[in-house]
Amino acid sequence: MSEKISEAELVVMESLWEAAPQTANDVADRVAADRDWSLQTVKTLLSRLMAKDVIAADQDGRRFLYRPLVAREDYVAGESGRLVNRLFGGRVSPLVAQLASQDQLTADDIAELEEILKGLRS
């Protein structure tokens, strides 16, 4: 994926990753609880995502059914890799150290990290 997805576009993508295909109305209904967006705003965001080739639309009568072309896991992997590369020189340990120094790691987070490391060592 060459173009970045904006925060607003990501809200639409999350809706499509949860359930697809969806009409523009379906997406608008799903995001209405969190956002005060009009149907036209959702349609604009869907158009932008289509231009970025991250979603596709199939015509179904007079409406379009939108579906993601990029899996959520692939998007998250790419974005997290870019973050680590850009801010931490490609190293993960400085990211974890930064989170720890800001008291952003819960006891559950630490336990999960320990399990991940344990699994990597075996």
Helix content: 55-70%
Mind describing the biggest β-sheet? 2 strands, antiparallel
Rg, please?
18 Å
Secondary-structure-based class equals mainly alpha
Distance linking N and C termini: 33 Å
Q: Can you tell me the overall shape? A: elongated
The percentage of residues in β strands lies in: 5-15%
Q: How would you state the average pLDDT, rounded? A: 93
Q: Spans of 5+ residues with little confidence (pLDDT < 50)? A: none
Q: Please work out how many helical segments DSSP would assign.
A: 6
Number of strands: 2
Description of the molecule:
It contains six helices and two strands, in the order H-H-H-E-E-H-H-H. It has helices spanning 7-18, 24-31, 39-51, 72-88, 93-101, 107-121, and strands spanning 55-60, 63-68. Strands 1-2 form a two-stranded antiparallel sheet. It is elongated, with a radius of gyration of 18 Å.
